[in-house]
Amino acid sequence: MPDKKMRTILFLLQKEFLQIMRNKSIRVMIFVMPVIQLIIMPLAADYEVKNINLSIVDHDHSTYSAQLISKITASSYFKFAAYNQSFREAFILVEKDKADIILEIPVNFEKDLIKENKAKVFIAANAINGIKANLGSAYLASIIRDYNMELRSKLIAVTRYNPVPVIEVPSSNWFNPLMNYYYFMVPGILAILVTMVGGFLSALNIVKEKEVGTIEQINVTPIKKYHFVIGKLIPFWILGNIIFTIGLLVAWLIYGIVPVGSLLLLYVCISMYLLAILGFGLLISTFCETQQQAMLVMFFFMMIFILMGGLYTSIDSMPNWAKIIAKFNPAAYLIELIRMVVLKGSGFKDVLPHIIKLGIFAVVLNSWAVLNYKKTN
Amino acid sequence: MSDTVIQTEKLTKRFGDFIAVNEISFSVNKGEIFGFLGANGAGKTTAMRMLCGLLKPSSGNAQIAGFDIYKQTEKIKQSIGYMSQKFSLYEDLTVLENIRFFGGIYGLSNTQISLKSKKLVDELGLQQEAKKLVAELPLGWKQKLSFSVALLHDPKIVFLDEPTGGVDPVTRRQFWEMIYEAAHRDVTIFVTTHYMDEAEYCNRISIMVDGKIEALDSPSHLKQKFKATSMDEVFYQLARGAKREE
């Protein structure tokens, strides 16, 4: 009897593979999409803020203010937009979107700095683009602090007296020492790719059979429901692994990213995850009647999976209710798992809790899909 | 009793308030060609889907090939073949791949599959097309192919839902020859149709009106009973009384 069951599944697999290999759009999806996405997205979707347009209003016209300005414009982050006479004038530039940040140096900047040992500068940022404003002001503040330190050391050399003790905080970035954004983004995008391809392919598949009417012919056969679902699951599981492998190769060839952890462990993670996400797709497939419905439903969930998956924004800084939602997001576990294994080199014990959670997703979603697939209405 | 392969008793299907099939009772014998007639929306397809185990009845009883329609649907499925209104083989598989797949999931052995494939292709004269995708075949050939695939696992009963819709007269003729041949091998044929000339080919006919069976007999007896010269007239007399619209 077990032989007979195996045979049924083998016939299903053979049929699915023939269909997949004949489908041109699926072939393109498998081989072209991962390459293009991995080449384009990490280069464009970069957190680093560059080309900040800076407008400077210098009321002091002193040696110190000139020094500060040259130090700022020497940094690659800022682009010198204009040198304005008044704050009002600079503000007009901001309104026209020609400047992002205004630095105003008051009259007597140099005098105050020497005599009273402190001086103030004013930074105004256009916060319409929040990230640019935040990071820009932070960069600017840190350049000014640097300059301040320089000046101080000069003054201390003269007076041999330091009125304010200064605590310097050097920081070092572990696991990604150069703060290379590709290291951070590429593994995440790889996770998203597998999620998208796996989710959509599986969600559309059973529904397509419903639409075309071939499922009727399947439903009048004595085939078992779980055979049918397994027959759908395995081909896409293999496809998902192929796509992931292509993605890993691209990451290595183009970005030089080689997983620090075990490659085998990485495949264990991705395999378990694929079972979960494919089960989810198949479940949606059993609920929908047309491919259009399945597409829209899957799209809704994809948005949540991706935006609440910790790829672009950290889950740790989400509000509590959002963290609870993220707990039910399988993609969040995968993104974390891939980053752990690829960047940190985490071992089996470190990733086991997440793998178990993904296993639970896989069992629940696939069983639900089998139960919800009705041969008899 | 052993000759009865389909037996229904007050079989009913309700969709909310709508009674699609209303307490139909009939029996079909082994090797019989049973015509299942009725206007659009009379409930033919719903009744047939219940008999095939695709739809759960709301009430009533039925036995198909000796198996209970509620409890033994999977056993029923092994003993029946089904050809739906809509062409439902895989268009993106070739003729041979379709045969292999359906043969395989009905549990035929590899030797059986290759023997049957060859026989089927020869009988249908599809030697040239055997390795072509089914999508490329003309409709008439597709229909003949699906009928043959439905017979692949030697079922006791074959359900055909408007098998010749949209097919040219010559192919229809060939199709009916295939039906006769299968019936000759003691396969019971349960067929719905809108063509009254096809109705004449059946051993017995039931005519459904508004979810009920209004007439059931051989074509000649029906014509006598309704004092009609053709099945067309019999059908008109009965279907005119229908209150339901499509």
What do these coordinates show?
The complex is a heterodimer of chains A (377) and B (246). With 377 residues, chain A is of the alpha/beta class. Chain A folds into 2 domains: 227 residues, no CATH class; 108 residues, 3-Layer(aba) Sandwich (abc type-2 transporter like fold). In chain A, 68% of the residues lie in helices and 6% in strands. In chain A, strand 1, helix 4 and strand 2 form a beta-alpha-beta unit. In chain A, helix 1 packs across helix 10, helix 8 runs antiparallel to helix 10 and helix 10 packs across helix 11. In chain B, 37% of the residues lie in helices and 26% in strands. The mean pLDDT of chain B is 90. With 246 residues, chain B is of the alpha/beta class. The interface between A and B is medium-sized, with 26 and 31 residues.
Rounded average pLDDT of chain B: 90
Structural class of chain A: alpha/beta
CATH superfamily of chain B: P-loop containing nucleotide triphosphate hydrolases
Identify the CATH architecture of chain B. Answer: 3-Layer(aba) Sandwich
Portion of residues in beta strands of chain A equals: 5-15%
Q: What gyration radius of chain A follows from the Cα positions, in whole Å?
A: 29 Å
Arithmetic mean pLDDT of chain A: 85
Shape of chain B: globular
| Quaternary | heterodimer
| Distance between the ends of chain B | 37 Å
- Spans of chain B with pLDDT under 50 lasting ≥5 residues? none
